[in-house]
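Thread: Modeling a multi-component assembly for a lab meeting

Hi all, long-time lurker, first post. My supervisor asked me to bring a structural picture of a complex we are working on to next week's group meeting, and I have zero experience with this. I have the sequence lines for every component (465 residues in total). Could someone generate the structure of the whole assembly? Inputs are pasted exactly as I received them:
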Amino acid sequence: MAGTTVPEGTESAAAATPLSADAYAEIQQFYARHMQLLDAGEAEAWAATFTEDGSFAPPSLPEPIRGRAQLAAGVRRAAAELAEAGERHRHLLGTHAVDVGADGELLVRSYAQIIATPRNGQPRLHLMCVCEDVLVRRDGTLRVRERRVTRDDRG
Amino acid sequence: MAGTTVPEGTESAAAATPLSADAYAEIQQFYARHMQLLDAGEAEAWAATFTEDGSFAPPSLPEPIRGRAQLAAGVRRAAAELAEAGERHRHLLGTHAVDVGADGELLVRSYAQIIATPRNGQPRLHLMCVCEDVLVRRDGTLRVRERRVTRDDRG
Amino acid sequence: MAGTTVPEGTESAAAATPLSADAYAEIQQFYARHMQLLDAGEAEAWAATFTEDGSFAPPSLPEPIRGRAQLAAGVRRAAAELAEAGERHRHLLGTHAVDVGADGELLVRSYAQIIATPRNGQPRLHLMCVCEDVLVRRDGTLRVRERRVTRDDRG
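Re: Modeling a multi-component assembly
Sure thing. I ran the full set together rather than chain by chain. Output:
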């Protein structure tokens, strides 16, 4: 797999230095727990995966949600609405492309499928989104400092 | 990425120590082969990815399937039914959240999409499930000792 | 996780030696950027993730596309068609099972969901495919030397 050195005219994003396996595995595990907490309606535990002043700009709101109290309140509201509608939602995040910012923060751009399943009904792909996060380390663990989500059906 | 130490009131699941990159990559590769064997109808090879006495509690059965002979028989039956129906199924497993049990066994909770595609037809999201596995090491490789699958449209 | 040594009659594909975490994480990151470039219509940057003489055998064509100029032209054409149709496509690649070839090349078999979303419309699972790649290292980074894609609704 040494490969010959072929000069190339195009500097591609794919040629960016990949993160270490340790860093990439930590990011993948972070998102697995983060999304399982969200889908379980674990509002406080989920909010704690953001920094204290973490922000989340969802496509449905004109202004970002800021801080853990507001983040947790949003999850409780969504969980109540889903319970009333008799639906489960799953957030499937993948295709993580990661860059490292000037201060070591992780800039993670991911694809997100949101799957909705009504009780006794057929699952459906509810939304296809792109999720752009800034992750930082706090107390030895990754946290979301900023999140921006865009929907594929908009814009 | 050193980060400041912010005291926190909430101990979240996301703060659990992540697995090593080695362990996480091994789990991901285990599942990739395991699911590709299943979808290819490779009944014996798939059953061999369980322990000898491995059990699988699918949502469709009142009692778990136990042991490799029964596991393989289940795959052969499903493959025959799909061939007759002219459909392919793909099991897409991801969002793996992993805890380590008291004896070092791996407790893996994953999201599973089952995609069905009829010959000359449109693919559809057939089922959205949660897959909870206990993985152990046997002969130097991971195996499923117990599997429990729940469907999002039930319960 | 030491595990007892149980003798086994079946040598399964799952028992193949897994890749190192470093190699597997590099492959995952390669595909994340590769697919995000494709979906963004970044024709040249995407083509540069193939080797100079890289080939791509898509299900829609009788002959493989060969070389970066042709690969880039294909992306530009597809991007123009999607823009005219008012649709976005996302290529979600996962379930990577990797073998190592005789010359160290990586043989990667993956599942691919192609998600289509019309502007102001519902996302749908457009195609379910299997993607078989030969990856090699060139200039220190992975590149696709050969790609073969098959659709689940055919054959």
